[in-house]
Design a protein that fits this description.
The chain is α+β, with helices and mostly antiparallel strands. It is built from 8 helices and 8 strands. The protein starts with a helix and ends with a helix.
Length: 209
Amino acid sequence: VWDIETKKAEKEGYVLNNGSLIRLDNMLIDGDKDNIVLYVALTSYKEYMATCLPEFRKMFEEKTGKRLSNINSASTFASATVPITLDDYIVFLERTNKVSEFKEYLSIPSGGKWDGDPVKTYYAMLESSEELFDRCKEIVRKEFNYQINTNDSSHKLLSVYRSKEYIDYVLNFTLNLDNEAGQLKERADTITSSNKYRDVELVKFEEGV
């Protein structure tokens, strides 16, 4: 799988690197304390591609003749933040066609690679929930090229869910911005000055949810 994808990346003009990712081993809900307990470990991007992406997962199952269980997959764990402006717009970032996955999709700031340092995030998770949310907020600021102001006490957990197509899990929460929609649209060129994003899209909160 890795050979297939690295050769494909080379033909399309980008380099595919392996690296650490976080996996979710288990999750328990403590109803008495209204807490969610997350059991996490480390995995890799290579293992994620082989065991979480549907086409490669199917290839793996056909060759082994066995169905791949969640326990034996990478079960990667990411964050996804819904940024909300002062005037109640959700801010989406439109991806370019130069990224390896989800080309030209609208996306919200996410952290499958946890700001390039999943190992640091893993240890932050072992410390406290606030340490984890601080890491998530830094991802949001970086994804917007530090052109936004965040209300750091506004984060609200929405869910921990498993994505429909992939065997991966997402910590989903909202974060209020101290910016209005018009300000971010004016800064769109600066926000998207990389090969990852090409535009900023704004959707009224009522429509976006």
